[in-house]
Design a protein that fits this description.
The chain has 612 residues and is of the alpha+beta class. The chain has 3 domains: 301 residues, no CATH class; 52 residues, no CATH class; 138 residues, no CATH class. It is built from 19 helices and 19 strands. Strand 10 and strand 11 form a beta hairpin. Helix 16 packs across helix 18. The longest helix is centred in the middle third of the chain and has 36 residues. Keywords: Membrane, Transmembrane, Transmembrane helix.
């Protein structure tokens, strides 16, 4: 087993080294089974013992909902932990499961003790009401001395867990503490050590058989409604639970068997007192045991006591119950781990299944583990930390590979350069090569200049499309004259002294003159703004595919628009007059000059250098 030190006692470098050791020698970074509770694992091993000579061993395949008798475990081995490796090897085979286990959940059901301890005043722990059971629960695990009424307890030898009384009336204790000794943890610790050596995820839990038997009551007696006492008999004690008429748990007691008796001393008096304290209408008792002789002894004791106070009782023999036929040892504690059995009960209409008590017991209260595995888990890095560590290892390998690749490529490049044929050239060959290189550069320069000169800058059909985009058909415009001109601009003055311009801009001008009707004035007004003018030129570029019309920071657009009245306009003109002289139908005249200037920085500017 790895020697793990509490990270709180280590420095950062030591924590990193310990995390690397865990990541390399265990499967915690890749197997999520390490971070699940035992009852969630598909392969489970259940151990039940009541202090007698035999240990009940059972395996459960959760995926197949199948119970089987487990490997034989002598009672002495449960105490000393001997033979753990051999037993674990048996369980890892497919002998006890439908398939070979990849992980194992081990649940130890303790049925040889059930001690109850008083909780300190609720106001000292959680306030005036004491309703917050979760705070009490966690405090009882972390520091039981601050929660229990008895401050002189030893957390080294015993462990405590909370048992709430969901149906306790006002004025009575709302909860109590259950205690189990930690003497069986040595067996589980050796089991965990062997599993870690095998890189096999094993999760363990220690539970109270008495509380689990209470949680299984609606499965054993679906018709029971409450308003009674439930006495569950074990080899060394009898656990008695008071159930209110509403089906809620009110109180609990643990009655020891003394002198080898199967029934507690003063059994009838204790039951009658509990019934009165729980304010039950009558003393109704359900006796539960797997031994017929125990049920008979308890029945005889209550029959004798009934002469003093009336006691109504029923018996429930676990060995003859149909729900436990396939359960090894006929143990009801195993039922609450069988999802195929629990799901119909959860969704069924059994009276107790609808109560807060049983919803809580089936949630997590009934399967509380008395072994603080969380403290052990905190010694190891979290799965996210191990994944980050593995990713960082990959990153280191990747960086090392990149460094080696770069060094290799640099060495190869240096070797190739040193062995290049150019090192063997004669002076005459070098001069010839330089001359060829100069010639190629000159030819490339000529090609570049020629390509720039031959770029399409002004095409006739695009100019006609320009007019169509400006004045669509039936737009109410009569164009009397149109002139288009494209010429080079003057070279810009050099910015730096001695600098020579290598290109010159282009200026294109569209001059239009004509007559318009009132509806066409809106077309002209849109051109009288920079935004409208840019939108018009962009529309022409989209329609023609000519990028020379597309607006750009290196291109400037200006417009000069003059509007006036048409002196020849005649509102009384007859159709015949309009046919002879169409200008009589246009009330307004206009003159517009649109100018686009491409600077010397534009891609379509004219190069000044000669290509040849």
């Amino acid at each position: 087993m790895l020697n793990i030190t509490d990270p709180c006692e280590l420095k950062a470098a030591d924590i990193y080294r310990q995390a690397r050791t865990v990541a390399s020698k265990t499967s915690r970074g890749t197997d999520s089974h390490w971070y699940r509770v035992p009852e969630e694992l598909p392969w489970q091993w259940h151990l039940w013992f009541d202090g007698g000579r035999e240990v009940c061993s059972a395996t459960y395949s959760k995926q197949h909902h199948r119970w089987r008798p487990g490997p034989h475990l002598p009672l002495a081995n449960l105490t000393t932990g001997e033979g753990v490796g051999e037993i674990l090897g048996e369980l890892m085979s497919s002998t006890y499961f439908d398939d070979k286990p990849k992980a194992l959940g081990v649940i130890l059901h303790v049925a040889d003790e059930f001690s109850l301890a008083e909780i300190a005043q609720a106001g000292e722990v959680v306030g005036e009401t004491g309703d917050d059971f979760q705070i009490l629960r966690y405090n009882l695990v972390d520091d039981p001395r601050e929660v229990l009424a008895d401050r002189e307890v030893s957390s080294e030898a015993n462990s405590w867990r909370l048992l709430p009384f969901w149906g306790a009336p006002t004025g009575q204790a709302r909860c109590t503490a259950m205690m189990l000794s930690r003497s069986r943890e040595a067996f589980l610790q050796k089991l965990l050590a062997s599993a870690e050596d095998l890189r096999m995820p094993v999760r363990v839990a220690v539970t109270s058989a008495a509380l689990e038997s209470l949680a299984a009551l609606p499965i054993l007696r679906p018709d029971i409604t409450g308003g009674c006492l439930v006495a569950i008999s074990f080899y060394k004690f009898t656990a008695v639970f008071a159930i209110s008429p509403d089906g809620e748990l009110q109180t609990a007691r643990s009655l020891a068997h003394r002198g080898g008796s199967q029934v507690p001393s003063g059994f009838g008096d204790i039951l009658w007192t509990m019934a009165m304290g729980a304010e039950l209408e009558s003393t109704k008792v359900l006796l539960v045991s797997a031994q017929a002789s125990t049920l008979q002894a308890a029945s005889q004791d209550l029959d004798l006591y009934s002469s003093r106070h009336a006691v109504e009782y029923e018996t429930l023999n676990l060995a003859e119950h149909s729900a436990l036929t396939e359960i090894p040892g006929h143990r009801p504690e195993f039922l609450i781990y069988d999802t195929a059995v629990m799901e119909p009960v959860r969704t069924g209409k059994a009276p107790l299944a609808q109560t807060e008590t049983y919803r809580s017991l089936w949630g997590n209260w009934g399967r509380q583990s008395f072994m603080d595995t969380g403290r052990l888990d905190n010694l190891y890095p979290a799965q996210s930390d191990l994944r980050l560590l593995r990713f960082s290892s990959w990153l280191v390998y990747l960086l090392a590979f990149a460094l080696l690749s770069t060094a290799g490529y640099g060495t190869y490049s240096l070797f190739a350069a040193m062995n290049h044929p150019s090192w063997e050239l004669t002076p005459e060959q070098m001069k010839k090569t330089q001359a060829q290189h100069t010639t190629l550069l000159e030819e490339k320069k000529q090609i570049d200049i020629t390509s720039r000169l031959l770029q399409p800058r002004s095409r006739g059909w695009v100019t006609l499309e320009f007019l169509l985009q400006l004045f669509p058909e039936d737009s109410g415009v009569r164009l009397e004259s149109f002139q288009y001109n494209a010429e080079a601009t003057r070279p810009a003055a050099p910015v730096a002294k001695g600098a020579v311009a290598d290109s010159v801009g282009i200026s294109r001008t569209w001059t239009l003159k004509g007559l318009v009707k009132p509806k066409a004035l809106e077309l002209l007004s849109t051109l009288n703004s920079q935004r409208g003018l840019s939108a018009f030129f962009d529309r022409v570029a989209e329609a023609t595919g000519d990028d020379s019309y597309r607006p750009s920071p290196t291109r400037q657009l200006t417009v000069a628009l003059t509007q006036g009245r048409n002196a020849r306009f005649d509102t009384q003109a007859a159709p015949g007059d309009l046919a002879r002289d169409p200008t009589l139908a246009f009330p307004f005249s206009f003159e517009a000059t649109l100018t686009q200037t491409l600077t010397d920085k534009d891609t379509l500017s004219l190069p000044l250098a000669k290509p040849f």
